[in-house]
Amino acid sequence: MDIETVKERAAPRAFSPKDDMPEEYRKAATRMIQFHANSEIMGAYLERPFIRQAPSLDRKLAFSAKVQDEIGHGQLLYRAAESLGIKTREEMLEELATGDGKFLNCFHYPMEEWVETPMIGFFVDGAAMRRQATLKRSSWEPYAHAMDKVCFEEGFHVKHGEDILRELATGSRAERERLQEAFETWWPRIIQFFGPTDDKSTHHDFASEVGLKQLSNDELRNAFLNAYIPKAEKYGLEIPEEPRIRKRDDGTYRVVEDDLDWDEFFTVAKNDYEGSHVQIGKRHDTQEAVEWVRTVLDEHEQTSMGTAPAAAD
Amino acid sequence: MSVIDHLSGPEDLAPDEREAVETLLYRLADDEFVLAERYTEWQVRSPTLESDLALSNIAQDELGHARLWYDLLEDFGHEEADLLWERDPETFTHSTLVELPFESGDWADPIVRSYLYDEAEHLRLQALEDSSYPRLEDRVGKVQGEERYHREHATNWLERLASTEEGHERVQTTLDRLFPHALTLFQPVDPEIEARIDEYGIRTQSLDALGQQWLETVVPFLESLGLAVPIAEDGAVTADDLPETIGRDANHTEDWFDLYEEFTYTYHDLGRDSAERIMSDPDDQ
C-alpha cells in the first residue's frame, strides 16, 4: 500500500498486520506505541516506592495492583508495537535501559511524598485516559485493541487516585497544605503532558493524516483543562497563577503557553533532564542486575527445546 | 487428638482459648504480610515483564491473605492501626525467612524463598482445614486455592534455574543461606501456647509433625535438582541448625526494624491515627 492509499483509507482500526503497510506508516506507528509502552514502564518506577509507603493495607494492595497493571499495559503495547515489524520487544526494552527510548515528560521527575501520588494517580492518569480514549479509534488495529483493556483498567486507577486526593483534601490542615504544594509543583508538568502546541509539534501532521492519532495536542489539552480545573477546585486546590489560564466566553479554558518552560520540556523530551538520568539509570541498573536470569532462560530454552512443557512465568 | 470439637465464636472464647487463637492468627498474618512486603520489592525489577506480573500476583495474594487473617484478629476488638501501623515491631512473630532483604538482582532468592515458604504454607493450611475455630476454617479454602499456583510457579522456576550451571550455583548459594531461616517457620512462638493450639484442635497437626512432613517434601525435590540441602543425613533438626534469630519468638534481625520504619513512614509522617479501608470487609465478599 502506498502512502496516498493509506491516507484515503485511514479510519478507526482500518489497518492490521494483514495489510502491507508502507515503512513510513510502520515507523510512525512504532514511534508512537513504543513511546506509550515506555511510559507505562517508567511511570511504574515512580509509583513503586508507594507500595511500601502506603498508609493502609488496602492502599498498599491497590498500589501493588496498579503498578502491576502498568507493567501489563507495557507488555500489551510492546506487542502492538512489535506487530509493525520494525523493532522487537527486546530492542525496545534495550533502548529504554540505555536512554534511547522516549517517554512521557511527567515521569522524568522524582515523586517523593505520598501527597504527590494523586498528581500522577489522578491528574496525569486522568490526562492519559483522555488521550487513550481517543486512541481506541487509532487506525492501527492492534494499538486500538490494546487501548480497550488499558482504558478499562485506567478507569480504576483514576478512581483510586481521586480517592487518595479526596482523603488528603479532607484531611488535616497539614495534609491540605502539603497537597496544595505538591499541586503547584506538578501542575505545569501536567499541562505539558499533552506536548507542545500544534504548530510546534513535529510528528502530528503525518500521524493524524494516516489516522494513528485522532485529536491534536491542543484539542486534548483544552478538553483536559475543561474537565479537570473544576475537579481540582472541587477538592479545594487553588490553580497556580502561572501558567495563566484564560476563560473563554463559552466557559471553556485555554492556557497561555508562553508561560510554560518549553526549554525544560524539550530537554526532558531528549532524555537529558537531571531527572531523566536518574529515572533511566534506575531502569538500566535494575535490568542489568537481572541480566543473568535472561541468559539462564535462553540457555535453558536452547537445551530443552521442544521437550519442555510450557512454563508458568 | 484434640479434646474440643468446636470452639465458639470470637466473643464467647475463654481467655486461654482466645490467647491460643490470637497467637496462631498473628503467626499466619505476620508471615503473609512481611513476605508480601518483601516480594513487592521485585515489582518493576523482575527479569522479564512476565515474571514481574507473576510475582506481583503472588505478592498481592499474600497481602490479601494477611488481610483475611488480620481481619479475624479484628474480631477481638483490634483495629488495623494496632495490628500494623502502631504496633510495636518487637511483637511481630513472623519467621525470619520472610523478613530478610533481597540483594539487588538476586532472583534466585525470591524463587527459593517462595518454594520453601509455600510448601510449608500448604501443609500449615491443611492443618487448619478442620480447625475447631469456625472463623478460621471458613477462610482456609480460598487461601489454599491460591497457594497452589504459588508452588507451581516456584517449582517451575527452580527447575529452569537449576538446569544451567550459573543458575544452579546461584540457587545453591541461596538455599544454603535461606534454609536455616526456613526451619524457623516451624518454631514455636511460645511452647506452652503452641501446645494449647494443638490441644484445642485449632490446628490439627503439631509444629513438629508439620516440620517433618515439610522436610519429606522439600529435601527429595531439591535433591532431585542436584542441590545439596544443608541438613544432617538422618534429617534430624537440632538447635544448631537454626539461625541466630528465629523471628517466631519476636526476636528479629536489624533488617526487620528497617523495613518496619519504611512501611510505616507515611502513616506517621501524615500523623494518621487510623488506617483507611477502601475495600469491602472479607465477611461481605
Overall CATH architecture of chain B:
Up-down Bundle
Mind telling me the CATH class of chain A? Mainly Alpha
- Report the principal-axis shape of chain A: globular
CATH superfamily label of chain B: Ferritin, core subunit, four-helix bundle
Distance between the termini of chain A: 39 Å
Rg result of chain B: 19 Å
Overall pLDDT metric of chain A? 93
Known CATH architecture of chain A: Up-down Bundle
* CATH T-level topology of chain B: Ferritin
Query: What's the helical proportion of residues of chain B?
Result: 55-70%
Largest beta-sheet details of chain B: none
- Main CATH class of chain B: Mainly Alpha
CATH superfamily of chain A: Ferritin, core subunit, four-helix bundle
Shape of chain B: globular
Task: Specify the oligomeric state.
Answer: heterodimer
Secondary-structure blueprint of this entry?
The complex is a heterodimer of chains A (313) and B (285).
Chain A: H1 3-9, H2 23-47, H3 49-53, H4 57-82, H5 89-98, H6 117-135, H7 141-169, H8 173-192, H9 204-209, H10 217-234, E1 245-247, E2 253-255, H11 262-269, H12 274-289, H13 291-303
Helix pairs in contact in A: 2-4, 4-7, 6-7, 6-8, 6-10
Chain B: H1 15-39, H2 49-74, H3 80-85, H4 96-99, H5 108-126, H6 134-162, H7 165-183, H8 191-199, H9 207-224, H10 254-263, H11 265-269
Helix pairs in contact in B: 1-2, 1-8, 2-6, 5-6, 5-7, 5-9, 6-7
